[in-house]
Amino acid sequence: MEAPSTDARDRTESAPPEQPTVDPAPGRPWWRRARTEWVLAALASLLVSVALTWPTLRHPASTIPGDLGDPTLQAWQVAWAGHALLTSPLDLWHSNTFYPERYTYAYSDTLLGYAPVGMLGTGFEAAVIRYNVLYVLLHALACFGAYVLARQLGANRWGGAVAGVAWAFAPWRLAHSGHLNILSSGGIALCLAMLARGHGWSLRHGYRPERRRPGWAFAGWLVAAWQVSLGFGIGLPLVYFLLAAVLVAAGCYGWSWWRRRERPPFGRRLLVADLAGGVVFGAVTLLLGLVFLRVVDLNPQAQRTLDWTKMFSPPLMGFLTAPGDSWLWGERHAAAREQLSWPPEMALLPGMTLIGLAAAGLVVSAYPLRRRVALGVGVLGTVLLGLGATLGGDGDPGYLTLSTHLPGWDALRTPGRMMHWTSLLLALLAAGLVTALAEAPGRTTGRRWTPFLMPLLLLAPLALVVVEGVNTTPHPEVPRPPAAMRAARDPILVLPAGGVGDLTYMLWTTDGFPRVTNGLAGFEPVSQAQTKAAIASFPDPGSVAYLRGIGVRSVVAVPSRAAGTPWEGIEARPVDGLGITREDLDGTLVFHL
């Protein structure tokens, strides 16, 4: 049913962000009242994030959330970007890893947008602290972004709070505790909120030209560009969404002009803001895209085929299955996860509470019927895309159709990550329901108990989405770099080489960023495969000659990590007659070539 908005209290509750629902000091300018709300919302988002990501900040200098795989890689990525831009910006894309390859910083999503944070502090410990702080802040940004988006689109504060927490701490995100690039989606909601505000548009009231704010529109494009700079994994769908939104908006504008025989108000300043912001957004997207295309040109094996997409496509039951790190649902959904071929990418539960609230929000809402139906269609569409190749047996038409026809989409090998959009649309539907319920007492007469009971009732959905966001994410201790890493002359090879251990070595290099041949990405460069084959018997004449030939000056071997590898027992292997020296530094060996 439609939520009426006839009385003064309803109009106050449904006001968009520029007119907060509560005036803490009558007579103050609106912008100061709004600023109070945003400051409080930001602080609340931060506090909730610290609590729901705990114990991330308990030992931020020595532990890391998730595992010792991708988190160590991404801690290095943030550190490298800051280091390179401060010391040698022209070498940004040619990192110190995968020596002697080029464009190695673009072997995976770069998190380049976090480069300013990477400029704070130096060394290994700073890199780990930086990662943990970012891990908490990105959750806070997602919560805040969804809150302001819901508020801009017509929700009140209760609805915004539910949307913010439900989106930022949805259970499915816990499967990606080791994927900073996937969790970093706050810019999506924030840029949409800014663009909607700049264009005077909301779900509840539609287009209101008098509320246009060109500055907000321009800022929205900048935030969108920043979001894309964090990686195409979730940035590319945003690019196509904004492109589609521009085309739809232009079509609606032209249709309105044709029907009314008069030009609807838009404004030259807003047009300039959109053009300028769109140019920045397009330039960032294009430049980053060209870099990744260069990587594929140099490494044809980096091209991802649709077989990857088919392998990671989830079944429908995956959308009702929580990852193992969910405190509430993890053990309860263990049997369901066993039926998933790849649970980390297929356990996609957005939250049972959120699903229930969104379903009710299709019936009772503060939004007009046609717009909540549009949100429902969006949920259905993103779910169908998220099924990937399991939709209809081959995903065509569907996700694989986009992979075939949209540039770059074929590189998005994990359809389940469309859950960013599914859960955001569900959160907006839930916000509409909660807003309607919160405003109901203002339209009720003769019930004195409702104003007192209603806040308690509204706490229930908020408390439930908070509980569904509680985690059991492991926080392993990060191995510290041995002193031998600082004593060795670069370029360096670290043994044992290959596998997840290479990601730890990449993090170790944040102490000075020596060049290393080690590295791990979604593909293996030809030179690295050749190096692994040549050094399997190190130290011997052939391996020493090969390493000297590619410019390696030192080999650092960590015997404690070599069990079960070709380098097990390396500390006892002779070096006589090889023209090299071996040094033992606290149990770590340095071979000087």
Task: Describe this entry's structure for a reader.
The termini are far apart. It is elongated, with a radius of gyration of 26 Å. The protein has two domains: 8-468, no CATH class; 484-592, no CATH class. By secondary structure, it is mainly alpha-helical. It has helices at 8-13, 30-52, 70-87, 115-118, 123-152, 157-168, 180-183, 186-198, 214-229, 232-260, 268-298, 306-312, 334-337, 343-346, 352-361, 369-386, 399-405, 419-439, 450-468, 484-487, 501-508, 526-534, 541-550, and strands at residues 201-202, 206-207, 492-495, 554-557, 581-585, 588-592. The model is unreliable at 1-26 (pLDDT under 50). The longest helix has 31 residues, at 268-298. Strand 1 (201-202) and strand 2 (206-207) form a beta hairpin.
Fold topology:
Elements: H1 8-13, H2 30-52, H3 70-87, H4 115-118, H5 123-152, H6 157-168, H7 180-183, H8 186-198, E1 201-202, E2 206-207, H9 214-229, H10 232-260, H11 268-298, H12 306-312, H13 334-337, H14 343-346, H15 352-361, H16 369-386, H17 399-405, H18 419-439, H19 450-468, H20 484-487, E3 492-495, H21 501-508, H22 526-534, H23 541-550, E4 554-557, E5 581-585, E6 588-592
Parallel strand pairs: 3-4
Antiparallel strand pairs: 1-2, 4-6, 5-6
Helix pairs in contact: 2-5, 3-5, 3-21, 5-6, 5-8, 6-18, 6-19, 8-9, 9-10, 9-11, 15-18, 15-19, 16-18
